[in-house]
């Protein structure tokens, strides 16, 4: 009997993936900064959530999810744990979670990126796909923020200026 080995070619290193994600986080932080305080918490279009709610969702995913992955602990998604009242609180928590992401991401071995993990007890995918979901979700919500800023007459930052 003949066996065939599958060779996996690496497209991107874990360091490059983290740099890519943090580039998106830098840009999203700048979008948060651009909102006037009142509109950050109140403005919406077509029934979508205000951008503060979207930012809280993003804050509630990245660091907590990576912590769960590192500790192999499936925990339910919890957006209600953080209820900011000011833009300053959101930005402070954003920065704290950025540091948590850096810490936990760097604790994931290359082999673990291929392991399946049940994110928040809901989505069972390989770790790398969960991380790509975090980035995709952020880009999606930042797009909503761009729409809000434009509707408010504020020119958002260029999407390619991530650093």
From TrEMBL:
Metal-binding among keywords: yes
A Pfam family per the record: DinB
UniProt keyword annotations, A-Z: Metal-binding
Domain of life: Bacteria
Residues that bind a divalent metal cation: 141
Single Gene Ontology MF annotation: metal ion binding
Nucleotide-binding listed as a keyword: no
InterPro entries associated with the record: DinB, DinB/YfiT-like
Similarity section: Belongs to the DinB family.
Protein name, UniProt field: Damage-inducible protein DinB
Protein's organism: Chryseobacterium glaciei
């Amino acid at each position: 009997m003949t066996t065939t080995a599958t060779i996996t070619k690496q497209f991107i290193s874990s360091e490059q993936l983290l740099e890519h994600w943090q580039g998106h986080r830098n840009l999203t932080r700048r979008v948060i900064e651009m909102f006037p305080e009142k509109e950050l918490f109140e403005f919406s279009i077509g029934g979508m959530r205000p951008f503060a709610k979207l930012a809280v969702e993003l804050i509630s995913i990245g660091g907590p999810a990576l912590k769960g992955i590192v500790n192999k602990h499936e925990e339910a998604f919890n957006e209600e744990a953080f209820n900011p009242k000011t833009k300053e609180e959101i930005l402070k928590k954003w920065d704290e979670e950025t540091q948590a992401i850096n810490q936990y991401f760097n604790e994931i071995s290359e082999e673990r990126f291929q392991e399946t993990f049940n994110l928040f007890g809901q989505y069972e995918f390989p770790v790398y796909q969960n991380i790509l979901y975090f980035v995709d979700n952020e880009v999606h919500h930042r797009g909503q923020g761009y729409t809000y800023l434009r509707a408010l007459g504020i020119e958002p930052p260029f999407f390619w200026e991530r650093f």
